[in-house]
Structures are given as C-alpha cells and as structure tokens.
Design goal:
By secondary structure, the protein is mainly beta. It is built from no helices and eleven strands. The protein has strands at about 5, 10-15, 20-25, 30-40, 45-50, 60, 70-75, 80-85, 90-100, 115, 120-125. Strands 2, 4, 5, 6, 9, 10 and 11 form a seven-stranded mixed β-sheet that branches.
C-alpha cells in the first residue's frame, strides 16, 4: 500500500526558513513524479512545487519561486521542500503528492497526482 507522510511543519516568524520532508512507503518512488501543494482555509489546494521522475526537472509556483527549493532522494524515497524567506501568506497545510509510475502529466495540476499525504501545518507569524 502506497503511503506518503509529511513532517517538519511548525510555527516560525516571517523571514525564517523551514524544511518539509515527505517519506514514501509501499513503493520505491523512483519512477513517480512528485510535488507539493498547499491549502489555506476557504481556498482550493494550490500548486507549490514539483519534480519529475525522469530528468529531475523542477517546477515552482510564481509565488514561491526563488524562495522554495524542492529535491528528492530516490534511494530513500524521500521528498523535501526547503522554504526560505517565509511570509505570512505562506501559512497553509502543505501536502506531499505522487503521480502514477512513469506518468508525465502536468506537474502543476492537482489531478495529475494520485497519492496524497495527510498534510503538515506551516504557520508563519508576522
């Protein structure tokens, strides 16, 4: 059974950094495109960052570009999101997601992902 579990969320001040991790189990995830999404109360879940399964290409939402960095360790089936220069508007529940194996769907589209973690709360105070 495929499972994704996020960790590393918390409460930080604006301007701080935070690292989110996602551990996959049940599969090797070597051939899974993976991404991060987030949701704030009253809003739909939005794309944050993604990394492809084949060439490791990365994609970012404009709102986090140059501040967030996505990376993965295929051998360890882990995904990370390093968030620098955090802003209060980054406050959200962050979700780790994985596509089907070898799937090359749009990395910024929620419907391209099949497996989801439970989410990790990130709160940035001003």
């Amino acid at each position: 059974q495929v499972r994704l579990e996020e960790s590393g969320g918390g409460l930080v001040q604006a301007g701080s950094s935070l690292r989110l991790s996602c551990k996959g189990s049940g599969e090797s995830f070597r051939t899974y495109g993976m991404g991060w999404f987030r949701r704030t109360p009253g809003k739909e879940r939005e794309f944050v960052a993604a990394i492809t399964w084949d060439d490791g290409g990365t994609y970012y939402a404009d709102s986090v570009k140059d501040r967030f960095t996505i990376s993965r360790d295929k051998a360890a089936s882990t995904l990370a999101l390093v968030m620098d220069a955090l802003k209060p508007e980054d406050t959200a529940v962050y979700y780790c997601a994985a596509q089907f194996p070898y799937y090359g769907g749009r990395p910024d589209r929620e419907r391209s992902y099949y497996y989801w973690g439970q989410g990790a709360q990130v709160t940035v105070s001003s």
